[in-house]
Amino acid sequence: MIILGSTGSIGRNTLEIARRYNLDIEVLVAGKNYKLLNKQIEEFKPKYVVVKDKESANKVNFKNCLYGEEAVLEVLEKAKSNLVVNALVGEAGLKPTLKAQELNKKIALANKESLVIAGKFIDTSKITPIDSEHFGLWYLLNREEESREKGKHLNPSAHPPIHPFTKLYITASGGALRDWPLERLNTATLEDVLAHPNWSMGVKITIDSATMVNKLFELLEAKWLFNTENIDAFIETKSIIHALIEWQDGSTTAHISKADMKLPIAYAILQKIDKRILEPVNLIEVGSLEFRDIRSSRYPVWEIKDTLLKNSELGIVVNTANEYAINKFLEKEINFLGISKIILAAVNRFEDIKLNSIKDVFEIKKEVINFLDITF
After folding, report:
1. Would the CA dihedral through 63, 69, 73, 76 be positive or negative?
2. Could you tell me if residue 46 is inside a domain?
């Protein structure tokens, strides 16, 4: 397979699955972590290696190590592997997703931005999601389909009718500030925001968790992946329920598992799993679960949820404004609530945009940045 982002969390877990199932790795693409990459090269012996820049390439123990964005696209074209695991961070993952699609390769997708900013131009039939929430929905829907097919085979006349879903749900942790008094939110420091209650993640995604932008993005991804606007989210504080499906008959099924990315990765790579990947959740030990509404009083960006689902082309606006605002927050130019303020202002300004081609995505990005520079 081809792994884009091999030294990140998803990449490392993907290589763990490759190790467990003795799978071949044809391509490793990484950023600047050449020390870990060198260990991966030594173990998996890929045919091609690409890193972010020339300086990193000079430190990699691999003959003809390539570097840069164009090299990633070049290697995708040369590689014979039919599966691409795209775990690149940010907008850098978009062009490889489009290239893999053009080459008719299957895509195990962990790169949010591909669907968030350009979902209109991506064929989701070639994609298996790696995100816990989207994997949970995919898993439940596939199990429903498998059950239906198995029932037909065993006893067609006794097979129950199809149960169309009426609504999809994904869950949120609530982020580091979920229990803070509302009046204190504007005083939250970067250190406060990064103190996630459930796990340790990168800086940007942890901030996105605290603002709830991450969950907005996941709703948008789900719309493209499952072709529906009937999707919502709520907070489940222990993060063991990742997704739920409400069926037409009034029943609801939930996907419950430990928060370990090896499970969705294994399914994305192998499609069918016959061996245990994770230890099951012990619900007796869990004891109780707590569910909460996501309220715009705590998460101001949540007020654009319906707007975003109705006009999903706004994804490029939200993503651009979010990156812009996070940089300002990191530089201490705005307070925590300023992130949401900037995003809402951008959406208000560009609410009626329409994208006709992939080029429009990059043009709108420039316009959003110009607007924010003038306004903020």
Report:
1. positive
2. yes
Helix (H) or strand (E) holding 165: strand 165-172
| DSSP code, position 83 | E
Question: Is residue 87 in some structural domain?
Answer: yes
Report the alpha-carbon distance of residue 36 to residue 56 in Å, rounded.
12
Q: Which residues pair with 236 in a beta bridge?
A: 291
Q: For residue 297, what is the DSSP state? A: T
More confident residue, 197 or 150: 197
How far is it, in rounded angstroms, from Cα 217 to Cα 335? 22
Q: Which domain holds residue 22?
A: 2-130
pLDDT at site 198: 79
Distance of CA 43 to the CA centre of its chain: 28
> Rounded CA gap, 178 and 171, in Å?
14
* pLDDT class of 170 with cuts at 50, 70, 90: very high
For 376, the token pair is 């903020």
pLDDT of 244-295, one tens digit each? 999 999 999 999 999 888 999 999 998 888 888 889 999 999 999 999 999 9
Which residues lie below 8 Å from residue 229, measured CB to CB, with a gap of 6+?
223, 309, 310
pTM here is 0.89
Write out the two tokens for 114: 């591909």
Q: What is the reported pLDDT for 144?
A: 58
In a domain, 283, yes or no: no
CATH number, domain with residue 103: 3.40.50.720
In this structure, are residues 32 and 8 in contact, taking their beta carbons and an 8 Å threshold? no
Residue 208: is it exposed, middle or buried by C-beta count within 10 angstroms (0-12/13-18/19+)?
buried
41: left (phi over 0), alpha (psi -120 to 50) or beta: alpha
Answer yes or no: is 80 within a domain.
yes
The pLDDT value recorded for residue 182 is: 97
147: Cβ–Cβ under 8 A, 6 or more apart, which residues?
none
Is 325 a residue whose pLDDT tops 50?
Answer: yes
Domain count of the chain?
Answer: 1
**22 vs 30: CA distance, rounded Å:** 21
Sequence-separated (6 or more) residues with CB below 8 Å from residue 58? none
Helix (H, G, I), strand (E, B) or coil at 218: helix
Q: Do residues 203 and 267 lie in contact, with contact meaning Cβ atoms separated by under 8 Å?
A: no
* 260 neighbors 239 (Cβ within 8 angstroms): no
